[in-house]
Write a structure and sequence with these properties.
The chain is 47% helix and 21% strand. It is built from 4 helices and 9 strands, in the order ββααββββββαβα.
């Protein structure tokens, strides 16, 4: 089962069951933390609260954060500790099987949060010819936005060629490249919580 946000320009594609599991885990951690603060002794709070925070942060990183953002200009793949920005100009092919794999000019990038086709393959279409498998939701969202970008890009290139004929000094804009960024805040917070938990255990 998949879900997408209703954002007008950027669509967030993620696995709904994974998000539900993350919400349940975070709610349990929050309830335990509140109960510990309300009824625990200062010693028990010091020993257990850092580990509850660390577990909650891990649940957020592993289950909630990974997703695939589809915008008019390209894709943003949010994995656990890294974020990939892929302009449509650098996307060469899309494969949605058990996982979502994106072939780009910088190599193959997998999305850990976007749902694939499932272990039993694509579902059968509820409308149209019988026994015709429907495309996975992730593939449909990406392909629709990719097609829109290609049509828009073709019009822009045609306009650029027309203007360059009238103005020879004008140059087309350089295409964007695939960028990879580490989620530094997540790493820093996780390390601090881990260190705090170790100190509370040893003290």
């Amino acid at each position: 089962m998949e879900s997408a946000s209703d954002a007008p320009r950027t669509v967030s594609v993620y696995s709904t069951p994974t998000r539900v599991l993350a919400a349940v885990g975070l709610a349990i951690c929050a309830a335990l933390a509140v109960n510990l603060i309300a009824a625990g002794t200062p010693g028990s709070i010091w020993h257990f609260l850092p580990w509850l925070l660390f577990v909650g942060w891990g649940i957020f990183l592993l289950l909630w954060r990974p997703c695939l953002l589809v915008s008019p200009d390209g894709l943003t793949v949010r994995n656990i500790l890294r974020e990939h920005t892929i302009p449509f100009s650098e996307l060469t092919s899309l494969r949605v099987i058990h996982t979502v794999m994106l072939d780009t000019s910088a190599g193959r990038i997998s999305s850990w949060g976007a749902p694939g086709a499932g272990k039993i393959g694509p579902r059968l279409a509820r409308t149209g010819p019988a026994n015709l498998p429907s495309l996975p939701h992730t593939q449909t969202v990406i392909q629709n936005q990719w097609d829109l970008w290609e049509r828009s890009h073709s019009l822009m290139m045609h306009d650029a060629e027309t203007s360059s004929q009238h103005s020879p000094d004008s140059q087309p804009a350089h295409p964007s490249k695939v960028t990879i960024r580490w989620n530094v805040p997540a790493v820093v917070v996780g390390v601090l919580l881990l260190v705090l938990g170790v100190i509370s255990t040893l003290s």
